[in-house]
Amino acid sequence: MENITSSSDDYFASNYTGTEQTVLATILTFIIVFSLYGNGGMIIVLYKNDRMWNSTNILIGNLAVAAFLTTLLIMPFSLTSMVLKYWPFAEGPICKFNAFLASQLLLYTIFIHTMISIDKYFAVVKPFSRAMTVRRTWTSSFILWTIAIFMSLGPLIHIGEYRYNRTALVCGVGFPKNKIDSIYMLFLFALGFIIPNIVNAHVYFKVFRAVRIHTKRISKTSVTSTCDVMKLQQRLVLTAFCSLACFLLCWTPFAVYVAMAVTSKSIDSIPHGLGVSAYWSGYMYNAINPLIICTMSTRFGDGIYELTISILRAPFDFYDFCKRGGGWEQGKEGSNTSSTTNLHQMKRLEPSPTIETELSTLPRTPIGSDPALYSSSSSVSVTAESSLLTIDCKQKSKENGAKNIVSSASIVLTTNKSQELLHTDSNPA
After folding, report:
1. CA torsion angle for 270, 273, 276, 282 (degrees, to 10)?
2. How many domains does the chain have?
3. Where are the annotated segments for Disordered (predicted)?
4. What is the CATH number of the domain that holds 243?
């Protein structure tokens, strides 16, 4: 936010002492590490648990994505400038792209916080409303991304200017040189900070008032299930409010910095170190917010804990795998053997189909001494259900002009526990 009044080398050089740069670089390194791990872990936990995909968690996930992108694409440039003691990218495409992303992600973050407060309003004040469904939440998130992008396009179409901020050691909206630049900066400040926070204050006032009224009613009825639901709602509201409070606390120095840049006639009137403090306190929010969410949300907290344990155990598991020897081939062979065994077990347990067949010849039961006294026609019905096989055989025999003889045989084959039972009865009619 400043005009170039000296040579190019002096302009892009850092105006902080060696001790200040060492301390600031160390702090920013810790912020980057904790922010990447915290926000990346929240994204992984939400991605792996479909049951967590309600409106509130989707918005929290979008918040984590914005913070993760800020950490990955914005903070390393500030760290590079601090370590090298100068800005190595001049004011070319990298500088403008970096400033565009920083502006867009900051606007999107505050917009998402406003959406979270609105979501809590409908959840507590109007619980039967269908205003914040999962589909509408995704649609709203996409619209907010679009609005943030269009609001950040001003300097790219010559409304305002993206420049390197020597006091902040990062590219951003340049110090206003005319009324149009000042109006654009005021526009960003009003729509990106003042108005959303007015909406947040109004909405949370109604939410806390509704929670207080519901609490009084529940204390009179003393219904356990209702009390549990209300406590859960209170916890969710408190989590969202603490996240917003952290955002306001961390980004207030940036708001003061912007206000001073708009009202000041010269960049020299801005206190030394305010630029870095303004931006880096906002960076710190990206590292603190996951800690707040995971502390107050059991699902996110448990998910991050399990992810941490799995990461810490990974080197030991890999060492044990290598120590056992055999490598991948042994694991593959064992896997194939196990799969074959499971397949045989499944085949044994698989229900057999019903079989009905006609047999033309059956073993004959001698009725008299002369086998020619009878002829045989046979009908066999075979029914197999799971491990029980039942065969009913009926023989119809005819003697030359004599009475009919019916021979019935019932065979029950039971394969359960490898036992077989054969029972045959033959009675003359």
Report:
1. -80
2. 1
3. 329-363
4. 1.20.1070.10
Query: How does pLDDT run across 141-198, given as a tens digit for each residue?
Result: 999 999 999 999 988 888 888 888 877 788 888 777 888 888 888 888 888 888 988 9
Beta strands in 114-190 (DSSP E): 162-165, 170-173
**What pTM does this model have?**
0.68
Query: Within a domain: residue 122?
Result: yes
- With H, G, I as helix, E, B as strand and everything else as coil, classify residue 329: helix
Phi, psi (deg, nearest 5) at residue 68:
-65, -45
Please indicate, yes or no, if residue 379 is contained in any of the structural domains: no
pLDDT of residue 84: 84
The DSSP output letter for 359 is: -
* Residue 24 CA, distance from chain mean position: 32
Residue indicated by tokens 């019932």: 410
Range of the domain at 274: 9-313
Q: In 3-state terms, what secondary structure has residue 356? A: strand
**Residue 254 domain flag:** yes
**Which of these, 67, 172, 70, 150, lies nearest to 113 by C-alpha position?**
67
Residue closest to 117 by CA, chosen among 191, 192, 56, 194: 56
What residues does 413 pair with on adjacent strands?
389
The verdict on residue 107 lying in a domain is yes
The answer for 126, left when phi > 0, alpha when psi is -120 to 50, beta otherwise, is: beta
Q: What is the DSSP letter of 125?
A: T
Interatomic CA distance for residues 44 and 40, integer angstroms: 6
